[in-house]
């Protein structure tokens, strides 16, 4: 498909998913890096209770809480 055809279909709101290779799509600033953190057992148990209550995984809960703290620092300091 030529770029002009693609633009025309896109502008019209037509389905263009069949011409996109979404397997290679990346969201900017969302490069993943693995970290390991050791928590006391009681913290992990609390995380698991909260995660179960919310219907999410422990990892998702931790990511969400850390992201919220970085966006809204408690001490009024600059956002990271």
Secondary-structure map:
Blueprint: H1 3-12, H2 41-54, H3 58-71
Helix pairs in contact: 2-3
Report what the structure shows.
The structure is a single chain. With 80 residues, this protein is mainly α. The chain contains 3 helices and no strands. It has helices at residues 3-12, 41-54, 58-71. Helix 2 crosses helix 3. The longest helix has 14 residues, at 41-54. It is elongated, with a radius of gyration of 21 Å. The N and C termini lie far apart (42 Å).
Order of helices and strands: HHH
Main pleated-sheet profile: none
> Mean pLDDT, nearest integer?
87
Give the overall form.
Answer: elongated
Oligomer state of the chains in this structure = single chain
Total of helices: 3
Produce a short descriptive summary.
This protein is mainly α and 80 residues long. 48% of the residues lie in helices and 0% in strands.
């Amino acid at each position: 498909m030529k770029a002009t055809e693609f633009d025309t279909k896109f502008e019209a709101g037509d389905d263009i998913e069949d011409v996109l290779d979404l397997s290679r799509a990346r969201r900017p600033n969302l490069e993943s890096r693995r970290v390991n953190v050791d928590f006391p057992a009681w913290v992990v148990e609390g995380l698991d209770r909260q995660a179960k209550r919310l219907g999410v995984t422990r990892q998702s809960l931790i990511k969400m809480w850390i992201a919220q703290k970085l966006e809204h620092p408690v001490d009024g300091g600059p956002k990271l």
